[in-house]
Design goal:
This protein has 492 residues and is α/β, with parallel strands linked by helices. It is 38% helix and 20% strand. The chain is built from 15 helices and 20 strands.
């Protein structure tokens, strides 16, 4: 696939409010993480524009959208999926330009999953059931208790920059399927695919106010104005744990339900009896996919001592073979999302050196001798020798880096994997099926893979524990969050 032009070259990226595209007064710049060039100017939503979006969403609930049948909502969601696929190349171009991720990732994961989310949740609504109970009464006639699900109302969706369309649609699709209205705020780093999605919503005939899109930043900007708005009924957020804590404080004022998928410091546990080549290949993916910028990526690798040295060498060899570069040049790994984020990751590399870590590979910035040197590229990095209490072992870095340490027993491996304030995901590699089940159950995480990584069934629960989040998404779990249940009791 040849590079396609950025969909918003030469024009401002607008917000979408009450069925119309809106250019606000203030703008901010969106730069390419590949070469630092200016991609577009983006309309930044101010407080009055957020007020307009919330009012439009509230009015849509009371209007035609509130009377749509389930079949009508499902039809619209499926048409959104078709619309994404019809403009597949535009979505790919926007996603690649905004993030710098390899073309293959956008082609095979981001955009297909974005479309699939709308189909999956439309289909899941058909299979959704509800509870009903017969209740005995003293007069012998009895009563029927049954449950109905209603929309929560106006839902604020705040999504991250690492998987922009995938994670935005992961929230928007079930929210709309359940009959809610939505105000979405994508990351300021990745405005394009969210705006393309607004165009699709407009084209398929979604009633005005049902889906609204606002651009901006967090504190003192669109993000803060949205999550602190008194007329928002629920908030769903994927991103940093610290941001989740700030949002939760705002939500507490109105006792609003929240769904958070936050940070992680995920572990991989590799036993000596594992399929060695599969474990190396899987760990390469789990450490370096999307330049390590996936909440599920592995940053802590624990290897049983008999194969420790061999595994470290093999993982390093695999990392050295990875091609770093332009998304359209067959790269295995692109840049980080921004220069600012690269400075953060490089700061952790420097910290690891001060903490006594030994760098097997990486630890710096690649040099290309062309425009890519103005981008946010960084070396894939493998570290050994850090103490378990080191900050680089405890804190989420969110880059292409892992620390590898040995272990001597199954019990020790479990203790090491669980020695974190996070609890999002883990991977266990072993040919002993009983051990795989046993260790997976003992690891404190919301998702545990055995002999695999990032294999997802969209019907299954997804989310973390501790500082990794609140609640679960996926399948019926998403539908439950985006619904308010009412029990109806009818006396016979």
């Amino acid at each position: 696939m040849q590079p396609r032009p950025y969909p918003y070259t030469g024009r401002k990226i607008p917000c979408y409010i009450d069925g119309a595209f809106v250019d606000s007064g203030e703008v901010f710049e969106k730069f390419s993480p590949v070469d630092g060039s200016l991609l577009a100017l983006v309309a930044e939503a101010d407080r009055p524009l957020i007020d307009r979006a919330v009012a439009a969403a509230r009015a849509a609930l009371r209007g035609a959208w509130g009377h749509f049948t389930l079949a009508e909502r499902q039809d619209l969601l499926r048409r959104v999926a078709v619309g994404i696929e019809a403009r597949f190349d535009d979505f790919v171009a926007a996603e690649v330009a905004d993030t710098g991720k390899p073309l293959s990732h956008a082609l095979k994961v981001d955009i297909p999953r974005g479309a699939a989310n709308f189909r999956v949740f439309a289909d899941l609504m058909t299979a959704r059931g509800s509870e009903s109970f017969h209740t005995d009464t003293p007069d012998g006639r009895g009563a029927l208790n049954y449950v109905v699900d209603k929309p929560l109302g106006v839902v604020a969706v705040v999504s991250p920059w690492n998987l922009p369309l995938l994670l935005l649609s992961w929230k928007v699709a079930p929210a709309l399927a359940c009959g809610n209205t939505v105000i979405a705020k994508p990351s300021e780093e990745t405005p394009a695919t969210a705006t393309l999605l607004a165009e699709i919503m407009h084209e398929v005939g979604l009633p005005p106010g049902v889906f609204n899109l606002v651009h901006g930043f967090g504190p003192g900007s669109a993000g803060e104005y949205l999550v602190s708005h008194a007329d928002i009924d629920a908030i769903t957020f994927t991103g940093e744990t610290s941001t989740g804590s700030a949002i939760m404080k705002n939500a507490a004022v109105g006792l609003k339900p929240v769904s958070f998928e936050l940070g992680g410091k995920n572990a991989a546990v590799i036993f000596a009896d594992a399929d060695f080549e599969a474990a190396v290949a899987g760990t390469l993916r789990s450490v370096f996919s999307n330049c390590g910028q996936v909440c599920l990526c592995t940053e802590r690798v624990y290897v049983e001592r008999p194969i420790f040295e061999r595994f470290v060498g093999a993982l390093a060899d695999g990392a050295r073979l990875m091609k770093i570069g332009d998304p359209y040049d067959g790269a295995d790994m692109g840049p980080l999302i921004s220069q600012k984020h690269r400075e953060k990751v490089l700061g952790y590399y420097a910290l690891a050196r001060r903490e006594g870590g030994r760098f097997i590979i990486g630890g710096g910035v690649p040099e290309f001798g062309d425009t890519r040197d103005r981008g946010a590229f960084i070396d894939p990095t493998i570290i050994i020798g850090l103490h378990e209490e080191a900050r680089c072992v405890k804190e989420e870095i969110f880059g292409p880096v892992c620390h590898i340490a040995p272990f001597d027993s199954e019990a020790e491996a479990i203790d090491l994997a669980n020695a974190t304030r996070y609890g999002l995901a883990a991977a266990v590699w072993t040919s002993d099926l009983a051990r795989g089940h046993r260790v997976a159950r003992a690891v404190d995480a919301g998702v545990v893979w055995v002999n695999e990584w990032f294999l997802r069934d969209l019907r299954t629960p997804f989310g973390g524990i501790r500082m990794s989040g609140i609640g679960r998404e996926g399948g019926q779990h998403s539908l439950t969050f985006y619904s308010e249940t009412t029990n109806i009791c009818v006396k016979y």
